[in-house]
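Practice problem: predict the structure.
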Amino acid sequence: MKTLRFIAIAAISAAVSIACSKTDGGDTTKDQEPAVEMDVLPTDPQPENLEFNHRMLLVQHTGTACPNCPYMTNALKLLLEDNEQNKKFNLVASHGGYYAKNDPCRSDDADFFTASVGVNAWPTVTFNLTTTQEGAYTDAEYTKQEIVEKMNGFALDPCPAGICATSKINDATIDVSIGIKPAVDGAYRVAAWLLEDGVYGKQSGAREDWHNTHNNVLRAAAGKVSNVNFSGEKVDGTEIGKTSAKAFSIPFESTWDISNCKVLVFVTMRNEDGKYDIVNTALCPIEGSVAYEYI
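Answer:
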């Protein structure tokens, strides 16, 4: 079955060239921003439990100028509606790169992230912070099954850590407090991404009206090490079974509808190669919280 992906060769955005200098994900971090006041984290519903549900990160790389991107959107709709699969991931839409130049959903961080994972063909889904990719086919069910097959390779059982969060509006920022509870020893980092639902943008190749309304749109990423390293900021003093916390402040723009926003939080862990990848994610409502999710 033929995959439907457009490759931007000569006209890839400037952000893509930055990926050539991608860092190795080690412990060197950027200069830290001033400390954000920590908010009260949600109560742990099972303090003695270390068996966490694992949710990986799926990122849809898309753009309103991409005529084949609705094929991927159709497949992801099926995946989100599948109750066996939708508890295994959280989804982000990164409108970045060549087909998002005039896209109302585009953001600098989307450009940077799409470049950081080596995407140069659209539509594409990537997995966690890796360069593993899957394209789209005309058959939405077939595309869904191809994505699920790759998801199986990223499943973590047992899950190394749980994650919880609280968010609140503070003038022109969203302040996010994140807690992690390790089940195994390791070096951990956390990050927070601001997402927006319900963004209207006329989609090239739209076959139904709902294709023009975009959800899970990546607006801003807090906790990145650099524009090519999104592995998060280090969490100090982690201990098995105990909550360690970190806070971020995410500026938001007046053109974004804050009532349609939410925060994706994730925790990464250093692997044997010294690199970090996501080991769990959660979605936190604005002015709300998300507790540890257990099996």
